[in-house]
Request: fold
Amino acid sequence: MPSLSTLVITAGPGIGDSLANRLRGRGDEVFLTDPALDLTDAATVGDSLRSLIGKKKVDNVVLAALNPAAFQALPITGLSEDQWDDAAEWSMRAAFVSLQQVHEVITDGGRVIVILPTVAATGVADLVPLCTAVEAIRVMAKAVARRWGARSITVNTIEVELTAFILGDAEASDIELPVVPILGQPALPLGSAVDDVLGLFDLLTSPSGGAVTGALLVADRGTVMQP
Amino acid sequence: MTGLIGLMEGRVVLVTGAGAGVGRGVAAAFASAGAIVGIGVRRPEAASETAEDVRAAGGIPVVLQCDVTDAVQSKAAIEQLVADYGRLDAVVHNAVSGRSSEATDFENTTLAEWEDHASVTVRATWRLAVQAYPHLKKSQGAYLLMSSPAGIEGSERAPFYSAVKAAQRGFVRALAREWGPDQIRVNSVAPLAISPALENMKILEPERVKRIEGLVPLGRLGDPETDIGPPSVFLCSEEARYVTGQTLVVSGGRFTSL
Reply:
């Protein structure tokens, strides 16, 4: 398979960042956005992508961009308007702006993969803003999949367990994790979530994956089994 | 709708966006069930038909100015209901952006259009919950969101509407867990019904409406009062005391794969 170029959009360290490292490590051409980039400003994001990629177009895009503020576990009654906005709405705006700008830089027949945590499938107390944002972004991706199908661009979502989303390859001791009830036990033995996502990335970006769009693939080793 | 009689007797309910469409029908259904119905509208003069429906159904209409994007107004509406009737048993958040029937040019639009949708359907969903919380906790009541099948399957024409309606479903699942210990139930209904948006669409894109009707196994779009109202009342009533965190799709079978 020829080497493909991949743009990875993140809002900080975590699964997207780790996936970018894996792709680079095996020799793929990878463009990784600056984690400090304001993903809610269309002009800034557009300029940044152009500066990163140049005049060419990319084959694949990975969007794994949730505001870290969303990972703080708090009851909704304890949130100020600004906290709600940071934890819930910022990530939705970022997804819209990012996808809108991606439309300009992705090649026809390209593949967009949105990575999200599984939390919204079941809901998690004290993570209402995060669950709200995740479900919005997942369905926004479906809508975009419908819109961009005419260009043979596929748009799919991969969901991973929340801790794996936040940490990626980092050590649990390096990053503060939200204290929330676990969603369940994985059916399969534990392994690297980044490797799991990489496997699905390869499937979705291969010629065999060209007919899959608007889908949700859950890579959590059988923790949350959707109906 | 004799099946509703007594289900919400003496209960106090706030319905937002109740001036027309689904909100108006749901308000009338709550009245049939015996509720005191707070008719939340941006402009009180737009509530006269709903108030008449509520009266005709044997209920007590309380018209409240409640632009849900205005934190002061939504809080005042809730507080007035509680002050006048002593309790609040359910909030039905049905209001949507006035632009929800418009097609969204996702690739070329701006954040201002997103904000139109998000302010009503996302931020107000959270804010109403916070404002109603102490009263719903006291009554062990219910919070019901009017979502949409578009919030499940995604819409090519309405990506923003789809996203904000999906946001409500994520909100419902998480808040149901958060408020479960308080015995407050949180659910959503995903209706396919005649609404101001669809009435508009009938004028602007009549063929599109016919196409939608053709996709409904039951062969018609739902009636807000008689088709969407009863399931909404049920979810807020004591009969649904063990139902929380759910989305009930009320679409005549249009959508079957939740």
Summary: The CA atoms of residues 43 and 65 of chain B lie 6 Å apart. The radius of gyration of chain B is 17 Å. The interface with chain A takes residues 71, 106-107, 109-111, 114, 118, 122-123, 125-127, 129-130, 133, 151-156, 158-160, 162-178, 180, 245, 258 of chain B (CB under 8 Å). Chain B is about 45% helix and 15% strand.
